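Entry for iron/sulfur cluster complex. Fields follow.
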Amino acid sequence: MKQNTALIQEIQKLKKEKDAVLFAHYYVADEIQEIADCIGDSYFLSQEATKVKNKTIVVCGVTFMGESAKLLNPEKTVLVPSMEADCPMAHMVEIDKILDVRKQYEDVAVVCYINSTAEIKAHSDVCVTSANALKIVENLPNKNIFFIPDENLGRYVASKVKNKNFIFNDGYCHVHRDITVDEVMKAREEHPNCKVLMHPECTPPLLELADYIGSTSGIIRFASENEDQEFIIVTEEGILYELKKTCQAKTFYTVSKNQICPAMKQITLEKVKHILETNDNEIVLSNELMQQSNIPLEKMLLLAK
Ligand code: 13P
Ligand code: SF4
């Protein structure tokens, strides 16, 4: 604990010296969320990235979040504490597959979940996050939607948008995919009066068991506004930090010991301090890639308003 206090003091000092601001996603470790200047879901963090006045943005989350901050604010120095904090789903679509689908369907909109590399975004028409995917897809003029890389979020959106033809890709989040129906049923039996709040990266059979489906910020909003006092949480456990902070009198249960994203957990106080000292792990993208991949991201911010 004492060690953490010293580390935190050094981080605060370095932040001032470097004119840096610290962004954190709800899935990173508690001690990182504790010192962050801005905590949020992927959508909120990308919106906030466009408003930053500081010279440097430290993105405590997975690398695609760092890339998005850079794309939306190219003049800034964007640092990520760990290059190993790489979301596997962000790579789960082949560029050739996108090109093939484009050839096959003339009017297709390639809708790209923000959990994707800058290169994949560069081949897409519009980005979405789990907080705005439904609204954006509903309002696209295109009949055919190629949803990449996440099949589960794609199928969830398709289940709500009936007048379009969806083409799916087989990407997935292993953390959400590995949560089982049995685990959720068992939690329901143990806490029969609890509502089940779930992230749409869960598989379709799991989503059928949910009382509420939404992004991390959606889950937090639902839990704080709902009159119930106890909830079952089916997403990464890092969200509990914010849930307990915003809903201090309420109780939250998880369904499995494995609701942990190894990529998000790469972010440590030591690594935050290290990159502030060294400027290591700066996000650098070529001008051409930045120009191309910024288009769908900016389009998302416009359409989600
Ligand atoms: P949110 O957009 O809901 O914050 O989710 C990000 C993520 O990585 C989910 O696995
Ligand atoms: Fe990627 Fe899943 Fe981790 Fe989110 S929880 S960053 S989708 S691996």
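NOTE: Residues 41-42, 115, 129-131, 173, 199, 201, 215-216 surround 1,3-dihydroxyacetonephosphate (ligand 1) (CB under 6 Å).
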